[in-house]
Amino acid sequence: MMMAGDRRPPGDLERTVMETLRSAARPLTPREVQNLLGGDLAYTTVLTILTRLYDKGLLDRQRVGRAHAYSPVTDEAGMTVRRLHQVLDEAPGREIVLARFLGSLSRRDGQLVREMLRELDARQAPDEGD
Q: What is the pTM of this model?
C-alpha cells in the first residue's frame, strides 16, 4: 500500500494492469480488474487506465452488459506497440527519443506518419455543430 505523497514510477500502474489482464483466463471488466488489484484504486482510475491502454492499441474490448471487458492484444502489431510504449515510459527524455526516432525515418515513412497524424487530427476535431 502506498503512503500519502508516494508516487508510482511512470507507467507502473499501466504495467500492473497489463500483468493482471495477461494472467486472467478471460477478458475482465474494470470492476474485476479493480478487485484483483486489491480494491485500493478508485474505479474511475482503473477505467481511465484501461481506456488509455485501449486507445494505445494495447487492449481489445468487448461489450459485456453495460460495461466493457478488456483483454491484451496478442497480434504482432499490438505487441510492437506495447514494446514501444514501454521504451518511451522508461526512457529519460521522452521528447528526445521521439524526436530522434522521427528524424531517423525514411522520407516515405515520414510522409506516412504525417498523413496518419492528419487523419488522427481530423477524427479528433470537434464537429462544427458542437
A: 0.59
